[in-house]
Amino acid sequence: MKLNKTLKNMVVGASASLFTMGAIAAEETIKVGVLHSLSGTMAISETTLKDTVLMMIEEQNKKGGLLGKQLEPVVVDPASNWPLFAEKTRELLTQEEADVIFGCWTSVSRKSVLPVIEELNGLLFYPVQYEGEESSKNVFYTGAAPNQQAIPAVDYLMNDLDVKRWVLAGTDYVYPRTTNKVLESYLKSKGVDEKDIMINYTPFGHSDWQSIVTDIKKFGGEGKKTAVVSTINGDANVPFYKELGNQGVSSEDIPVVAFSVGEEELSGIDTKPLVGHLAAWNYFQSVETEINEAFIAQWKSFIKDDKRVTNDPMEATYIGFNMWVKAVEKAGTTDVDKVEQAMIGLSVPNLTGGTATMNKNHHLSKPVLIGEIQDNGQLEVVWQTEGEVVGDAWSNFLPGSKDLISDWTAPISCGNYNTKTKQCTGQSL
Amino acid sequence: MRNSLIILACLLSMLLSTAHASSDKSTQALLIELTTVKLNKAIPVLKALEENDGDKMLPLFNTLLKGQLYYVKSNKDLLSIEKVDGKKEYTDVFSGEALEPLATKLTKKIRVNNKLRRFLRDSIARIQLSSSEPESREKALISLLSQLDESTINTIRSLKVNESNTSVIELMDVAIAMYALSNSAEATERLQAVRTLDGRLENEVRNLLVSTVKNEADIKVKAAAEKSLASLEDRIENYQFVNKLFFGLSLGSVLLLAAVGLAITFGVMGVINMAHGEMIMLGAYTTYVVQMMMPNAIDYSLWVAIPLAFLVSGSVGVLIERGVIRHLHGRPLETLLATFGISLILQQLVRTIFSPLNRQVESPTWMSGSLDINPVLSLTLNRLYILAFALLVFGLLLLILNRTSLGLNVRAVAQNRNMAKAMGIRTDRVDAMTFGLGSGIAGMAGVALSQLTNVGPNLGQAYIIDSFMVVVFGGVGNLWGTLVAAFTLGIANKFIEPITGAVLASIIVLVFIILFIQKRPKGLFPQKGRAAE
Predict the structure, then answer these.
(1) Domain range list for chain B
(2) Which of B175, B251, B285, B444 shows a CA-CA span of 20 to 30 A to A49?
(3) Which of B359, B454, B503 sits opposite A172 (nearest CB)?
(4) What residues make up the domain containing A167?
(5) Would residue A348 count as lying in a domain?
(6) The predicted structure's pLDDT at residue A324
(7) Measured between CB atoms, does A276 come within 8 Å of chain B?
(8) Which residues contact B450 (CB under 8 A, 6 or more apart)?
(9) B3 pLDDT tier (thresholds 50, 70, 90)
């Protein structure tokens, strides 16, 4: 009987303490959703970003958390499956009640998340360079818009290398097609003749580049300085550069500037044929600043591998996370609407020695760097913009979006405000 | 610490001695300036160096062009650091003498960018004009054709007097004629220049003729230029045809390599082997592993990798046949599903062992670059070797099938299994050997493909469809059919591609095959007689 009583006491006590513990846990953590593919084709790139977010959360918790609470990561795996991105977002927002989500890589995954995050009023930080033509109240775009990557790169080629003829080569899908459309009308606005632009699309994973490289060589051999602007995606780059090297096209004759070749992509390939070609990003691992060196050291010790590299989307994640932390502190709450308003106008240091500022259109101000590929797989800066470039959600060089702006502050509060008709057109994407 | 001091002292004395030899203070100052100057201001420094001490600067310029020029941080001494077989070699830039290794921290690389490289190349060409090697002189002249100015032409004119090599003289004439055509005020001189340029294939000549036709005031010169240009265009077109043909043959050889193994397992044995692509992948990974094991002998790695890949893929093939396919004999649908499962297992296995990232397979130096036949036509060496390799493999396979007892047995079993069994042939063993042979050849294809494309878990997937396409198009069970089909598809693809673009070209080829198979279900070379039943 006595035993029974003590047992009963114990059970009650235990459950009570469990209950209070649970209550404390629920009260004292802020949930951070991580929506990056950990399996499937995109896992190669996205796993790194998941680790970056986890690293940032760990560091923030060491500093004592946020608003006196600990941050709790909620990692889900959308498995490179676009509809699953929407489902996992719903799960994060309704079941897990995540206060913020860091995630997505491809544009199609972002487009799949968009309706859900707008319906449930969540908050997403998107860290990858993209084609623009979008601005949602619930999304902060911390990667580059076309005017923060493609257009400055073209300016560099035009002004510093005196390029007169242009090959726009890309993989056949949304991002290259939109970017090339923007570039084509930009080039024409600068007086480049129609016949000095050659546009070429290839399928995913294309490996036989013989004819295309010969065409480029022929196109470039007509007396005017020629450059290739490459939006070729992923794997297909390696055989492309190899073929260029074998056919004797050197980076001095016809430089190739790429928008999707970074440190991570270069770490798995033989860089010999690529040396001297260019890449345009907002961050390079090789930039020598104290803050960057600290970040690289932190990353290497977190991932426990000295050979791992850092890259541009990681910096975008870093900026996004720090900015969100600052906004939550400023707003004093994790409430999405308040944090969203607090975000606008905030500045945090970026890793290249400048500051990143969040603009009214939910895009960042970023410096644009052009780097030359080195034989060790790193990129050396050869040119950079003076100061930061403000991200432009709606390109000024496309007829459909010329008059649109995005401004999420009162009185406009609209992602696609038409400056001519003075209306929020509602024409979403 | 003491050691490094001694080394520094050595370096210093060495540099002093070279400085003494050239006895030019400003060169010395310029060399020090080179280590501190910003990238966009480096060209004037290099220009001054060239003017001061042209030929002495040649090794420096070459080292800088290769990106191997470093300097010692403490005293700004220049040295060359080259990685040879994974080891760093330290040499003096000017004398080429070997130096003691220095700690990485003590040295800093002198960076170059494209503008500098361009300047360096031109500058080297200008210096090389008076080189003692005729080949260097020729190369120098070719690279100078695009920027001829008066001083260069005067140098060429004065050098021409003592030149003995005929092809160098020819190029000198071309350079002089080009300069005359664009700068001479005399119409007769320009006419003479056009005549000299007639028949040259250089790109610069063509561009010059195009602008002459457009801008020339003198009718005679214009007519001559038009005539030269027309015949030039004709010749270029002919060479481009040859070039396209080569591209087609090269694509065909890749298709042939990928498909010929399948032609045996699918064509001769009738097994729909969906894991064929993974046999290719295993071969490619074997190359990677071989290169990892012998990092200092990349040039020879392929010779080790080819037989090894044959063995690895071949034995995996035998295992699959013994373990799975044997039990599914005569049930094509189940075989298809089972081998598809095996292909997924192999892919995941590779992902687990080697990581999902692509692996780095290096190209040996003898496979990089191209064979330049003339300024218009150049054939890339790696493609050329792979074409030869594909034909060699095909020849060997024919030899095995037609001249060996294994081949005899294989053909017997393929024609009539029961009869062969009755004659005392161990059909089980022959099946295993045939499958092993087909897989082994796929492995060898993998070695070749590792030189062209990415080595990753998905490598096989990219080639399985193409392989089946070739085998079916050529006629199941006919090796010659596979050969013809591979080259037909390759050439067709490369001739359509320039017109329609890469995406549409492959679609058109696919549609063509569908229509062709409708008309002739058994492919190009159907089997005849009783064996066909």
Answers:
(1) 2-119, 148-217, 238-368+380-528
(2) B285
(3) B503
(4) 150-258
(5) no
(6) 96
(7) yes
(8) B283, B284, B287, B288, B361
(9) low
Q: Over the stretch B250-305, which tens digit does the pLDDT of each residue have?
A: 999 999 999 999 988 887 788 889 999 999 999 999 999 999 998 888 889 999 99
B106-163 pLDDT, tens per residue? 888 887 877 888 888 888 888 888 787 888 888 888 888 877 888 888 888 888 888 8
Q: Is A280 helix (H, G, I), strand (E, B) or coil?
A: strand
The values of phi and psi at residue B94, to 5°, are: -85, -40
Task: Judge if ipTM > 0.85.
Answer: no
CA–CA distance from B226 to each of A138, A209, B209, B231, B375 (Å)? 64, 34, 8, 9, 20
CB atoms under 10 Å from CB of B238, counted, come to 12
CA-CA distance, A24 to B304, in Å (whole number)?
64
Q: How many angstroms from the chain centroid is the CA of residue A30?
A: 24
Compute the distance between CA of residue A108 and CA of residue A117 in angstroms, rounded to an integer. 15
A223 touches B at CB < 8 Å: yes
Look at residue B377 in the predicted model and tell me its pLDDT. Answer: 86
Cβ separation of A243 and B113 shorter than 8 Å?
no
Residue A195 lies in a domain: yes
| Average pLDDT, rounded, for chain A | 87
Q: What is the DSSP letter of A94?
A: I
Return mean pLDDT, chain B. Answer: 85
Question: Which positions in chain A touch B456 (Cβ < 8 Å)?
Answer: 235
Cα angle at A95 between A91 and A101, to 5 degrees?
Answer: 55
In this predicted structure, what is the pLDDT of residue A17? 44
Euclidean distance between CA atoms A174 and A108, whole angstroms: 9
Q: Return d(Cα A289, Cα A355) in angstroms, integer.
A: 13
Distance, CA of B325 to CA of B319 (rounded, Å): 9
What pLDDT, on a 0 to 100 scale, did the predictor assign at position A118? 94
**DSSP conformational letter for B133:** -
Pairing of strands A404-407, A414-418: antiparallel
pLDDT tens per residue across span B425-448: 998 899 999 999 999 999 999 999
The CATH classification number of B238-368+380-528 equals 1.10.3470
Structure tokens at A55: 């690293």
> Based on the structure, what is the number of domains in chain A?
1
CB contact under 8 A, A276 and B117: yes
DSSP element (H, E) containing B69: strand B69-72
E strand segments, A136-276: 139-141, 165-171, 197-202, 226-231, 256-258
Q: Is A205 within a domain?
A: yes
- Does residue A328 sit within a domain? no
**What pLDDT digit, counting tens, does each position of A121-180 carry?**
999 999 999 988 899 999 999 999 999 999 999 999 999 888 999 999 998 888 889 899
Answer yes or no: is pLDDT of A210 > 70. yes
Name residues whose C-beta falls within 8 Å of residue B377's C-beta, 6 or more positions apart in sequence.
B239, B242, B243
pLDDT at B92: 85
Nearest by CB to B111, from A43, A375, A380: name it. Answer: A380
Cβ contacts (< 8 Å) between A251 and chain B: which residues? Answer: 114, 117
CA distance B434 to chain A (A): 30
Residue of chain B minimizing CA distance to A207: B453
Select the residue of A160, A207, A382 nearest B453 (Cβ to Cβ).
A207
Distance (Å) of CA A360 to CA A140, A332, A340, A341: 10, 21, 10, 9
Q: How far apart are CA A371 and CA A278, in angstroms?
A: 6
How far is A165 from A311, CA to CA, in rounded Å?
30
Residues facing A383 on adjacent strands: A370
Q: pLDDT by residue (tens digit) across B455-477?
A: 888 888 889 988 999 998 998 87
Radius of gyration of chain A, Cα coordinates, nearest whole angstrom:
24
By the 8 A CB rule, do B197 and B205 touch? yes
Say whether residue A200 is in contact with chain B using an 8 A CB cutoff.
Answer: yes
Token output for A220: 């470039």
Pick from B386, B421, B397, B389: which is nearest to B478 by CA?
Answer: B397
